[in-house]
Design goal:
The complex is a heterodimer of chains A (630) and B (626). Helices cover 61% and strands 10% of the residues of chain A. Chain A is an alpha/beta fold and 630 residues long. Chain A folds into two domains: 317 residues, ABC transporter type 1, transmembrane domain (ABC transporter transmembrane region fold, Up-down Bundle); 139 residues, 3-Layer(aba) Sandwich (Rossmann fold). In chain A, the strands form two sheets. Chain A has a six-stranded mixed beta sheet, with helices on both faces. In chain A, strands 2-1-4-5 form a four-stranded antiparallel beta sheet, covered by helices on one side. The longest helix of chain A has 54 residues. Chain B has 626 residues and is α/β, with parallel strands linked by helices. Chain B is elongated and about 120 Å long. Helices cover 62% and strands 9% of the residues of chain B. In chain B, α1 crosses α11 and α7 runs parallel beside α11. In chain B, the strands form two sheets. A six-stranded mixed beta sheet of chain B has the order 6-7-8-3-9-10, with helices on both faces. In chain B, strands 2-1-4-5 form a four-stranded antiparallel beta sheet, with helices on one face. The chains are: A alpha/beta (630), B alpha/beta (626). Chains A and B meet through α3, α4, α5, α6 and α7 of A and α2, α4, α6, α8 and α9 of B.
Chain lengths: 630, 626
């Protein structure tokens, strides 16, 4: 409990405790922190004075005790304290809002920074929306505990003074009052986990209702078409019933909680009256004392309840740090509380692309690559191959055969279990931080765009307009950009919803070309492209490779527009297969065939099957499909 | 093009004062619960009565104590004479009375709050149910223009905004008003000046609160938006974590992150400050009020107009005024919002479906005959002077025959099948099933006898059983199992951890695309329809799964009439007849074999092109040529 007054920690221990982490976090803005502590000390402790003045007023009025001041003087003093307190509250809100926002923003920034830039493979423990709940709730939990620490000093000071004053007036009564107060602490702390549990159940029940409405109306055609609206309604009503029951349990518990607090105050007041009756007979207890006790009581209960909540919050904060560490995997909780400049006051300086120079790719060799799925099943089994400079390699296979896993494990997006990767003969220790521009760039199977302009999505921090034009051209996006209302400045919407599926894929391709990387990795780029567009795209890429190769000879320079002399492509489409120098056929996580298209066709039944299927390439390969139009 | 969509009420609903509309709705949904509502009222009244009693007890206590103190340190003779120490009027008796009354007040108050919540939830759930039923009955024209998120907002969001109204209006506003009235009455009787001053103070506080209440609303809206933007930014980057990392986009993303971070910081602080204006002004008034009351009491006690106990009591009543005043202003603010919600709920309930549901005839068993007679149809929301989606569609499909439907995107294929489900009625002509015009048929029966599999399989986050049966609990498990075996999902079912109870995850997370397709087939098998409409999946399935599906389709078509919307020429080879739609008209219709053999037919040319590379969409001008 004394840690807050000691010097800031200099070196973090192996697994720092919750308080040490909290202090590290709090100490980054120590002046503002101390200001907050001072203001809130004033806010929480000053009511002790008001209580004393109330006693003064009633004592002088009843004539039971002699006081130095008139009741009017006490009234003015009380007014002064209250006015001061309102001022302190206003300042306190400002100071705390500034401090609190900065603390939670710093934690969130640290989490995002680690997930997006730290070395090693990153796989979210669950869905992105589950990760968001950690970003939100766990961070809030930690900030909440910090708030407790700021509030605590004033509340404790109040309680200590109040109890001391009361003890001086009547020790027995004070001791007797403390009993129900401690009982409150026990009861409310016993209730808290139940309240939390029920509240969670209520949130879930509400989620099940809104999800159901959403799903039903998303599937309205299927629901109406099935003629089973009555059954669906019955289910809706059942879910509503569950929600009503949990909501009522929640209301009940909340009332019980409130009753415990309120009634303990009532019981304590009753004790004061009962014992006070006798004391008043003896003349040792005045009306002013009564007013004093009654003014202090609710606030004392509050303080007790607060300390109870704080104890619980300590535990929750420990859990929050654990959950955040789990999200970061190898990050550890120190990462969460690290310092980071947020540029809140004046805004961030312009972005500087931290681009490193790289050695041109001569060959990429992979040996014995193996990996497992999250559930432990073998996803990749001992895969070896080599990509020479300037080659066009297509990875193919059935759905679920491990094509995509292969390229993602290679790039360090998924963790590998065994195997080695050599870049020009250099062993790659951490593929995740190695396979980035300018060495390599990547379009994923289901590429993600971000709510921003198309330009921002493609450029991603690189500014050169000539490169941007070239990247757009290579991705066969020029026509689309012309047609879009605001061209490159078009807002693409959340996850790119305002673009068609094909446009999203080609924007992602443009983003990749914009990286000017040595190695381009396409993970099933063409799944939402029609045949003609796909053909144009590959032709562009090939023309580009020719230029790179032609120019690379004299000085080995790679600073040609959009780079990319070596391509690794996941596809089962003919347009890609026909161009391949090398075809890798995957089946059940194993590399079952490797060689030129002709060679592999002659001895791989899997490839023959895919090749055959690809012949009648979908009549309607355009994105959108028939459901969207009519 | 007149009747194809639900009609919104032509004239806007009369702008009834929201209080009256509120009252009407309150009446409709509370009447069935009049017993509970009466109990609630009784609880409330007793709790208020007791609340008023507490300061009275304290006054008598203080006055009695004061009397005894004034008596020179001794105790009043009358009090000493009381036979038992808890006798009424004695200090100890008053203390006990205080405790009992205070406890009872608190418990009755809690019970009233709970009862209010129970009544409110029952009422709002009834309203939610009514809205959902109403919306499920509206036609596709209505639903086409509304997102699922919007429906959630209108069926749950608006009603939840109203629930405060149902649950708390009575308790808080009525209770608050009664309590205020009680306090003021007591004070007026006690001392006219005090009564008048308190009344004045109350009016002042209402005025100030009414003015400041809304001060923070715009800032709070901005704060929420900033919040949503921040998490939206994070969520998008996490969802695209591989795209960001593998393209070295991390540092840039972090730099961009500083923009929502700053917005969050400033909007949050501003909203906090403005909200603090609201509660600080309320707190300031309260402090002012209590100190003024205290000052008045000091004066009146000093001149001997009232006893010390009365002074204390007045002070207590002053403190008691605070809560109901705040509650009432808060509820009035909710009422404004509830007014908007009531308006939207009303409007939704007044929206009528374009489809009359008065048909009663039922379809015969076995394969159904399909007959389109000079059908013309256009969507009601299409811009004026657009040509109809379907025009002059006239054909007959004999029971048990399979029709392959071809045509470019936008040629009207999907619309044609929607008319068969009677999602819409044609503008002209008629659609008949087994010779009966669709409006004459019982709609539920019609839709069960027509089965459809689309490429877009819609799943619920619910058990496999519920996904299969659309929550119809009357269907026995054995039947569900049989159907799953029939479509080739038997082995899959046996591997599920909880069998039919296994939960299907969001967006089919634990179901492959192929399995989802097969599940859609199972849904259709369950109904044993007489007409099947198949919108063939066009992409994203691997060859092996596709073979599974083909077996499934074969079994489904046996002994049924069918219409297949084909995206692949191979699929059409199952059809007995082929129809090519072009811009809403039948461009070609006939026996498949005959058309294939006739080199002048569009179908034959399509076949020839398909043997080359690409397909319909790669050669968009093919259909124009014919």
């Amino acid at each position: 409990m004394t840690t807050l007054t000691t010097a800031p920690p200099t070196a973090a221990r192996a697994t720092p405790g919750t308080l040490r982490l909290l202090l590290t976090l709090a100490w980054h803005r120590r002046a503002l922190l101390l200001l907050n502590v001072a203001i809130w000390l004033l806010v929480h402790a000053s009511p002790v004075l008001v209580g004393l003045f109330m006693k003064g007023i009633f004592d002088t009025l009843s004539g039971q005790a002699t006081a130095a001041l008139s009741p009017w003087a006490f009234l003015v003093l009380a007014l002064a304290v209250d006015v001061m307190r309102i001022g302190a509250l206003a300042g306190g809100v400002y100071a705390w809002a500034s401090y609190w926002s900065e603390v939670i923003l710093r934690m969130r920034r640290n989490l995002l920074a680690y997930l997006l830039t730290a070395p090693g493979s990153r796989r979210l423990p669950d869905s992105p929306s589950e990760a968001i709940s950690r970003f939100r709730d766990d961070v809030d939990d930690i900030a909440q505990y910090l708030e407790h620490w700021v509030d605590m000093w004033g509340l404790v000071l109040f309680a200590v003074i109040a109890l001391a004053v009361m003890f001086q007036v009547d020790p027995l009564m004070t001791a007797l009052i403390c009993l129900p107060l401690l009982l409150t602490l026990l009861l409310t702390n016993a209730l808290r986990p139940h309240i939390r549990r029920v509240r969670r159940a209520m949130r879930e029940a509400t989620g099940r209702v809104t999800d159901f409405v959403g799903e039903t109306f998303n599937a309205i055609q299927a629901v109406q078409g099935s003629g089973r609206e009555e059954a669906v309604l019955a289910e809706f009503e059942r879910r509503n019933g569950v929600r009503r029951r949990t909501a009522l349990t929640d209301a009940l518990l909340a009332e019980v909680f409130k009753s415990v607090n309120d009634n303990m105050v009532n019981v304590a007041t009753g004790i004061i009256l009962l014992i006070g009756a006798g004391a008043m007979q003896r003349g040792s207890f005045t009306v002013g004392d009564f007013a004093l006790f009654v003014t202090f009581l609710p606030r004392l209960t509050e303080t007790i309840s607060f300390l109870g909540a704080m104890m619980v919050q300590h535990k929750r904060t420990g859990v929050a740090f654990e959950r955040l560490s789990a999200l970061l995997q190898d990050g550890g909780p120190e990462t969460v509380v690290a310092g980071a400049e947020l540029h809140l006051r004046h805004g961030p300086p312009p972005f500087v692309d931290p681009r490193r120079a790289s050695e041109p790719l001569r060959s990429l060799r992979v040996e014995g690559l193996s990996a497992r799925h999250g559930d432990g099943a073998l996803a990749l089994d001992d895969v070896s191959f080599e990509l020479p400079r300037g080659s066009f390699t297509v990875v193919t296979g059935r759905v679920g055969s491990g094509k995509s896993t292969l390229v993602r494990v290679l790039m360090g997006l998924l963790p590998r279990e065994a195997g080695a990767i050599w870049w020009n003969g250099t062993l790659v220790e951490d593929p995740a931080s190695w396979f980035v521009p300018p060495r390599s760039a990547y379009t994923s199977q289901v590429p993600r765009l971000f709510s921003d302009t198309l330009r921002e999505n493609v450029a991603m921090g690189r500014a050169d307009p000539a490169h941007l034009r070239r990247a757009i051209e290579l991705a066969v996006m020029e026509r689309d950009v012309e047609v879009l209302h605001h061209g490159l400045e078009t807002e693409v919407g959340s996850r790119g919803v305002r673009l068609s599926g094909g446009q999203v894929q080609r924007s992602a391709a443009a983003r990749m070309f914009m990286r000017e990387a040595e190695l381009l990795v396409f993970d099933d780029l063409s799944s939402a492209l029609d045949v003609e567009t796909e053909r144009q795209l590959w032709e562009g890429v090939f023309a580009q490779r020719g230029k790179v190769e032609g120019a690379a000879a004299p000085d080995g320079a790679t600073a040609l527009p959009c780079g990319g002399s070596t391509c690794l492509v996941v596809s089962h489409r003919r347009a890609a297969l026909e161009r391949a120098d090398q075809v890798l056929v995957m089946d059940a996580g194993r590399l079952v065939a490797r060689g030129s298209l002709r060679e592999v066709l002659s001895h791989s039944s899997v490839l023959r099957e895919i090749w055959g299927e690809a012949r009648g390439e979908a009549l309607e390969a355009r994105p959108g499909g028939p459901t969207s139009a009519c | 093009m007149t009747t194809a969509t639900a009609t919104e009420p032509a004239t806007p609903p009369p702008r009834a004062p929201s209080l009256r509309r509120y009252g009407r709705m309150l009446g409709r949904y509370l009447r069935p619960q009049w017993r509970a509502a009466t109990a609630l009222a009784l609880l409330l009244l007793s709790s208020i009565g007791l609340q008023l009693l507490v300061p009275q007890i304290l006054r008598r206590f203080i006055d009695a104590a004061g009397v005894s103190a004034a008596g020179g340190g001794g105790i009043d003779a009358a009090m000493l004479a009381a036979p038992v120490w808890w006798a009424p009027g004695g200090l100890a008796g008053l203390a006990l009375l205080f405790m009992v009354v205070a406890l009872l007040t608190q418990l009755l108050g809690a019970a009233a709050t709970y009862a209010g919540a129970a009544v409110g939830w029952t009422a709002t759930n009834a309203l939610r149910g009514d809205l959902a039923r109403h919306c499920l009955g509206l036609d596709l024209g209505f639903h086409k223009t509304r997102t699922a998120g919007e429906m959630i907002e209108r069926i749950d969001g608006d009603v939840t905004a109203l629930s405060d109204f149902f649950a708390q209006f009575s308790v808080r506003v009525l209770g608050g008003v009664l309590l205020l009235a009680g306090i003021l009455t007591v004070l007026w009787f006690e001392n006219v000046w005090i009564g008048a001053a308190m009344t004045l103070f109350m009016l002042l506080e209402f005025a100030v609160l009414a003015r400041t209440r809304e001060v923070a609303v715009p800032a709070t809206t901005l704060e929420r938006e900033a919040h949503a933007k921040l998490f939206g930014f994070i969520e998008e980057r996490l969802a695209g974590i591989e795209d960001v990392r593998a393209n070295g986009g991390g540092p840039h993303a972090l730099h961009r992150f500083l923009v929502p971070v700053r917005t969050f910081f400033f909007h949050t602080r501003r909203a906090w400050m403005l909200r603090s204006v609201v509660w600080l002004s309320s707190y300031g008034l309260f402090v002012l009020g209590s100190l003024v009351t205290l000052g008045a009491s000091i004066h009146l006690v000093t001149i001997g107009a009232i006893t010390l106990g009365t002074g204390y009591m007045v002070f207590q009543y002053m403190i008691m005024l605070q809560a109901p005043i705040e509650q009432i202003t808060q509820q009035m603010q909710h009422l404004q919002r509830a007014g908007a919600s009531i308006g939207r709920v009303d409007e939704l309930l007044r929206t009528q479906s374009a489809l009359a549901r008065d048909g009663e005839r039922r379809l015969p068993a076995g394969p159904l005959e399909v007959h389109f007679e000079a059908v013309r149809f256009g969507y009601a929301d299409a811009p004026p002077r657009t040509p109809p989606i379907l025009d002059g569609i006239d054909f007959r499909l004999a029971p048990g025959r399979v029709l392959g439907l071809l045509g470019r995107t936008g040629s009207g294929k999907t619309t044609l099948t929607r008319l068969l489900f009677r999602f819409y009625d044609p503008d002209a002509g008629s659609v008949r099933l087994a010779g009966i015009p669709t409006p004459a048929l019982d709609l539920d029966d019609l839709r069960r006898r027509v089965g459809m599999v689309t490429q877009d399989v819609q799943l619920f986050q619910a058990s496999v059983r519920e996904n299969l049966s659309f929550f119809d609990r009357a269907i026995p498990d054995q039947r569900l199992r049989d159907v799953l075996h029939e479509v080739g999902l038997g082995e899959w079912l046996e591997h599920l951890p909880d069998g039919l109870d296994t939960l299907v995850k969001a967006a089919g997370g634990n179901l492959s695309a192929g399995e989802a397709q097969l599940l859609a087939f199972a849904r259709v098998f369950l109904e044993d329809p007489g007409l099947v409409i198949l919108d063939e999946p066009s992409s994203r399935l691997d060859p092996v799964t596709e073979r599974h599906l083909e077996r499934c389709i074969e079994r489904l078509l046996r002994g049924r009439t069918a219409i297949i919307i084909a995206h692949r020429l191979e699929t059409v080879e199952r059809a007995d007849e082929v129809m090519i739609l072009d811009a809403g008209r039948i461009a070609e219709h006939g026996e498949r074999r005959r058309l294939a053999a006739d080199p002048g037919s569009r179908y034959a040319r399509l076949l020839a092109a398909g043997r080359g590379r690409g397909g319909l969409e790669a050669h968009p001008d093919l259909l124009e040529l014919a």
